[in-house]
Amino acid sequence: MPRTSRRGLLFGTAAVSAGAFLTACTSNEPKEKNTAATSGAPAADDRPGKPVTIGFAGPQADHGWLNAINENARSRAKKYSEVTLETTEGSNDTAAQIGQVKTLINKKVDVLVVLPADGKALTQVGLEAMRAGIPVINLDRIFASPQAYRCWVGGDNYGMGLNAGTYIGEQLKDKPNAKVVELAGIDNLELTKQRSEGFAAALKNYPNIKLVARQAADFTVESGQAKMAQLLQAQKKFDALWNHDDDQGVGALRAIQQAGRDEFLMVGGAGAKSAMDAIKADNTVLKATVLYPPTMAASAIDLARALGQGKGVAGLAELEIPTSLTLYSAVVTKDNVDQYLPTGFN
């Protein structure tokens, strides 16, 4: 992803269930009927509570996953009649986004949800909001100081690589001298490093499998096609491919089909609908994808609503919402794809 597209950003069951888990967001029930109230915590549910204005500063929608982040936030806010969502023009420009967040602060929104173009660069404006009494939900790309946000919600990049590697390992565990290649994202991004580290850690459990080649792409269809073509030319035969991103995976599949190669299995990353459709059809080398779901933006809206209404999270006894929520990277295969298709993004 470009520095501000998913390059810099980038729950299985958790992604889907967090909706049910977190959407339970405000309760007006009497305490005797409120489970969490028995321990002093105001529980949450879907019924309207006091009005809340949420400021949302999201990314520029120049990538499928990033567009889905914005769509998830908007659609979730519409679910609540008492929630007003103040949105900014999505921006990949750090200075522009800082200005947009300052505008939301000046409007005195009740809660901020920010997916920063650059977490480190926007830390100061996060601190400014918190000092102004506006709690911040930091979405995915983390600020440099925990004082700059009240709660962080994001994906598990290391777990994404770990689960992709474990799936591939289990498919190839009985194959002697198995060879694997990796089509990574942008190497100077921490998320790419974490995904590769998790993948390498998983493969250590399968001594018969060797990573023989790795190429970094750019989270775009074009880069995926070009870099995959290079891998295919250099590696005349291998057994599995892990591709970090389903957008660049569209290009990778084109290169694979153009080369007439089908001797290996492919695992994608993120959870695009196109990838899930291909997995369901089972007519390409793509057999699985590891989720990094944009539903995290809907969960962030749920948490922002709970904060604005002074509620906890249903199912938890605590008075306050958690300080962080790391989403689970489920592996989607033909066996469970129908369960996850509703979360797929275009």
What gap, in angstroms, lies between the N and C termini?
15 Å
Query: Spans of 5+ residues with little confidence (pLDDT < 50)?
Result: 1-43
Order of helices and strands: HEHEHEHEEHEHEHEHEHEHEEH
**Average residue pLDDT:** 88
User: Number of folding domains?
Assistant: 2
CATH fold-level assignment of the largest domain = Rossmann fold
Major beta-sheet overview: 6 strands, parallel
How many strands? 12
CATH level 4 superfamily of the largest domain: Response regulator
- The shape is elongated
InterPro entries: Peripla_BP_I, SBP_2_dom, TAT_signal
Protein name: Substrate-binding domain-containing protein
Main location: other
Signal peptide: 1-20
Outline the structure in words:
The protein is α/β, with parallel strands linked by helices. The protein folds into 2 domains: 12-155 and 294-329, Response regulator (Rossmann fold); 157-291, Rossmann fold. Helix content is 38%, strand content 17%. It contains 11 helices and 12 strands. The chain has helices at 12-23, 64-78, 94-106, 123-131, 157-172, 190-203, 221-234, 246-259, 273-281, 296-308, 337-340; strands spanning 52-57, 83-87, 111-114, 136-139, 151-154, 178-184, 209-216, 240-243, 265-270, 286-291, 324-326, 331-332. The strands form 2 sheets. Strands 2-1-3-4-5-11 form a 6-stranded parallel beta sheet, sandwiched between helices. It has a 6-stranded mixed beta sheet with strand order 7-6-8-9-10-12, with helices on both faces. Helix 3 runs parallel beside helix 4 and helix 5 (157-172) packs parallel to helix 6 (190-203). It is elongated and about 60 Å long.
